Amino acid sequence: MELTTIWFIAIAVLFTGYFILEGFDFGVGILLPVLGREDRERRAMINTIGPLWDGNEVWIITAGGAMFAAFPHWYASLFSGFYLLLFAILVGLIVRGVAFEYRGKGDTDRWRRNWDICIVAGSALPAFFWGVVVANLVRGVPLDANFDYTGSIWGLLNGYALLGGLTTLLLFATHGAYFLHLRTTGDLAERARAIGIRLGAATAVPALAFLIWTQAAYGNGASLVLIILAVLALVAGLALDYTGRSGWAFAATALTIALASTSLFCALWPDVLPSTPDAANSLTHENAAATEKTLGIMTWAAVVFLPVILLYQGWTYWVFRKRVVVERIPVA
Question: Transmembrane segments in this chain: where (predicted)?
Answer without folding.
Answer: 6-35, 56-76, 82-102, 114-133, 153-174, 195-216, 222-240, 247-270, 297-320
